[in-house]
Model the fold of this input.
Amino acid sequence: MKKIFFALILLATINSYSQNKSLMDKPFIEVSGQADTLVLPNKIWINVLLTERDSKGKKSVEDLEKEMILKLQEIGINTEKNVSVSDMSSNFKFYLLKQNDVFKSKSYSVLVADAKTVSNVFIGLEKIGISNVHIEKVENDQQKNIRLLINEKAILRARQIAESLSKPLSQKVGNAIQINNFEDISSQLAGSIAGIAIRGYSAKKYDNENSYNEPNIEFEKIKIVSSVQVRFLLE
Done:
């Protein structure tokens, strides 16, 4: 029985090798194709660090937290759904600044959907003395679906290139026998903000609402790229 089983495995291996060798013996063309698109981020995480140091110990973290929540609600953010402690290990950390001065801090993550709301959060928190704010990360919630569509375009582009190269030789492009997809890591890091240093503005600039012009903050679009390498048979 073992001999029969071994013989079947050996036969399957030989057949597989023969098929692969048969494909490799046929003429083929190997080309690369690329496609990309730009999308605006619609999920932006803002990190807010509350620390008693900002108020020189005049306000506790709990007081700052209440003021922050009220301001975010005033802006129109659902604080129960879109505000969370960003790092549980940082919850109520203590910072020793001087020998006898110990200040507490707490870090939050605020999720918003557009650049205008980001601007409102930065300005609103600055008004109440919370300036330790920065963009944590950005993404588009349809990135995975968009990448699938871009993969299709990259494959079609590769075939077009193969056809343009083989046509002068009076050869036709056949089936694909090998496809490799390369993900562009740089596109995952895209989506930075131009002019995000709002925290540099003085709170006095917000005293007169009518005299202050809201800064025009725009996100760079996220570039989604798909690169493929395809091997086509030539007929």
Residues 86 and 108 are 5 Å apart (CA to CA). DSSP finds five helices and ten strands in the chain. Confidence is low (pLDDT under 50) at residues 10-19, 188-211.
